[in-house]
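Researcher: Let's run the pair from yesterday's discussion. Sequence first, then tokens, for each.
Model: Starting with the first of the pair.
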Amino acid sequence: MHSQRGDETWVYYWDPETKRQSAEWRDFDEPRPEKVRRKQGGLKVMHMIFFDMNGVILRWPVPIGTTINAQYYKKVLQDKLRPAIRKKRPGLLESGILFHHDNAPVHTARAVTDVLAGYKWELLEHHRYSPDLAPMIFTYSLK
């Protein structure tokens, strides 16, 4: 049985300039240019991330304005995650999957649990308020 984990997280598109990148030539008596600063939260995209002990299997950016509901999550499992597992972990779908995600309503919805049962993926129970299962925080370079 091979264990996999999935969750959603916000990914911020924030690229602060370094001093060297913003350096410019100016005369001694010229005023410094006014620097425009972008807020960190200005640009962000929700990503669905699925991984196992060997690394990330699927990082799926949710289109802006899309709500992650049971139908959307089910579609990602069917149309994105299964093909990604088949491609990145050949033979894994046939050997059995132990799947872990939290107790968010979208993850426990009947449409989602029925699909996972149909795949014969065993669900690992996620205990409420467990301090050793804190939310995940990811830092990725998207360049």
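Model: Moving on to the second of the pair.
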Amino acid sequence: MPRPVAGTALEPAVRREPQPSFAEFVLVIALMMGLSSLSIDNLLPAFSAVRSEFGIADANRMQLIITAYMAGFAIMQLAWGPISDSIGRRKVLMIGLGIYTAGTLLAIFAPSYEVLLAARAIQGLGAGSARVLSIAIVRDRYEGREMARVMSLTLMIFIIVPVIAPATGSAFLMLGDWRTIFMSMLGLVLVVVFWFGLRMPETLHPEYRRPLSLPAVASGMRRVVTTRASFANMLAMGLAMGCLMTYLGSSQQIFETDIYKLGPLFPLAFALIAICMGLASFANSRLVKRLGMHRLSRFGMVGFWLMAMVLLGLAVLFQGRPPLIYFGIVMGVAHFLLSLTMPNFNALAMEPVGDIAGTASSFIGCVTTLMGAVIGAVIGEAYDGTIFPLACGYLGLSSLCMLVLVWSSEREAAAAAPAATPALVAGE
């Protein structure tokens, strides 16, 4: 009897997993992360239209559109990672994107502001899967400085989304109403579903599959908290996220309506600052292998703290309303420096816990996102028509972040971290 040949009737062909190139891998991960960013930033120009349609008297209440999304985004992250550690990354991502799609459809047909907020929370619940799994997948394949490099390249592409998001949101408002923006979100999530489904293999190492149980999840979270490097960099990341969410929540009022009254030029001002962040991520991808994650993240945070001091000085000097050129330059430099910290904080927090990447990414993502959402909401509610709340928030948060970094010295973090786990590098 002849030996069976693969692909003949005697032996079915073995399905080969797709193997995306490095560039395609980065693009897919960036698109997954970009889904959450687009879901925030392209709605900013629509605040006035939503407020008018639903008769919202208090302009500060419009920030709940972001807060509701971020709350759902944070809470569900606790579940996505542990589930993916048990059944794999691909299945969990598809479930999460299905929930995001349901929330998007509800938002398109929302009859009231309260239903719109509920839809945004549902969107956030689903989008949390893309955030958690994008980081877990990167950690499955890379480690150390190479992981930081991939995260920087991913964030560089990811930040392009905020550059164009307010402009595209404005364009959709010209083509229709604010509901048209949600239709664009529906189109993007379908692209992610099909591209990921066709081209990305399962990346969870078989030996790292964990039982889906509360004790196993609690054990993973406890390990993050008791590993000094992971815990300290998680807190630092959360404080940095608080700075970013503070800016996102008040940017529309600062640039478009209250202080600088830029109107339709608001997307341009927003894009210029986002470009600075993208340039920082590109620079970080080039520098991190030479200088290291610790050094770059510390340099970025000290620089951001100094720029926060300058921003507060401008607020005092100009009664909370400095000239646009001064404010724009300081914000551009500050956010450039802030973007040197976040990918490195993330990589440093994930580095010691690669064997529980899903659970660790969930817990770290939940904590940092909740910190960002709560901090952004509190400082956003304090907005008073000046940049004082923003400047004070930046200075206070960056000061706390530096205290956390001092508490966790590099030597202590290295001593506390367990041995690095092997990573499946692309092409191996």
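Researcher: Give me one sentence on the second I can quote.
Model: The chain has one domain: 22-200+215-414.
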